[in-house]
Amino acid sequence: MEEKQYTVLLVEDSKLVLLKTARFLKENGFKVITAEDGQIAIDIYKVRFNEIDVIVSDLMMPNVDGYDFALFNYNNDRLPFVAYTVINDAASAMKLLGRGVYFYVQKPFVPGQFLAYILGAIHRWEFNKDIRKSESVYSGNLDSITINSTKAGLKDAMNWFSAKNEEHFDEDNFMKVVHNFNEILINSYEHGSLGITEEEKSKYIQEGVFDKIVENREKTCTKQMVISQTTLKDQIAVSIKDEGNGFNYKKYLEMTPDVLLERINMPNGRGIYICAMYFDKIEYSDGGSRVMVVKSF
User: pLDDT digits over 54-81, tens only?
Assistant: First the structure.
């Protein structure tokens, strides 16, 4: 089976850096669409978003900068977004996290790491998107669902969650609550059920083998996950219980801006922090194998 050729929207105001980076990406099998500032990128995005697999964008640019372009993407199709820049302050890192940017590549890029992070962003987006799609339809008002710790099980859980909550949120907020719940669900699946540590995940992403590791571990995993929801007058409370050994969740919930900045070059380890910024409450128990999130509607 022929491997897909991915298309990058590369946004950079320095013509020299733009040409050099575009050439590097093309030499490594990518198609490249270029834009010299955020406004040009937005204009391209509106017309050609179906062609784009990943955005790689500088931040400091004229007209529309990378931060506002990231916000535009977050409020629209939420394509995978890699910040390609020098990030040296915690406020910038937190601003990007609030706009759905998980991956960062510092200039000048390290070739192998650059490619790994771009592919990691694409594969993560494809995995999440696939899980959120399901042909099965749930009816009724089940308070909980038990799933196998498999990709198919995650699809069932997301479909169950979507069916229970679509009526509570308007379209924009519904997509946001689904996106953030999906992140928490996948965290329980990867780190709880499959037992992949943060250090292992970082290593596997950088080596370009993370997807294969997940696939192989799932084949031998017999653990289950229980998802439960309580719906009150103006909020939902959802819990996920996995059969893993737990983890040190406190370091993610109590992460200071300075610690976040120190970890900015890691390809993972920010999902819980991002979800904590979104949900009204996030609380772990049972050593980290149970998590509850609360969101008002």
Answer: 999 999 998 899 999 999 999 888 899 9
Q: 132, 178 in Cβ contact below 8 A?
A: yes
Of 112-116, 219-223, 257-261, which one has max mean pLDDT?
219-223
One domain, residues 150 and 73 = no
Instruction: Tell me the average pLDDT across 219-225.
Output: 96
**138/117 Cα distance (integer angstroms):** 36
Q: Looking at the 3D structure of the chain, how many domains does it have? A: 2
Averaged over 256-279, what is the pLDDT?
82
Amino acid found at 268: N
Q: Is residue 70 part of a domain?
A: yes
Separation CA 31–CA 52 (nearest Å): 9
Return all residues near 139 (Cβ < 8 A) that are at least 6 apart.
Answer: 163
φ and ψ at residue 145, rounded to 5 degrees: -140, 140
Domain end among 68, 100, 129: 129
Q: Which tokens go with 72?
A: 């535009």
86 and 190 belong to one structural domain: no
Q: Are 10 and 25 in contact (CB under 8 A)?
A: yes
Angle at which helices 198-207 and 210-219 pack, to 10 degrees?
Answer: 120
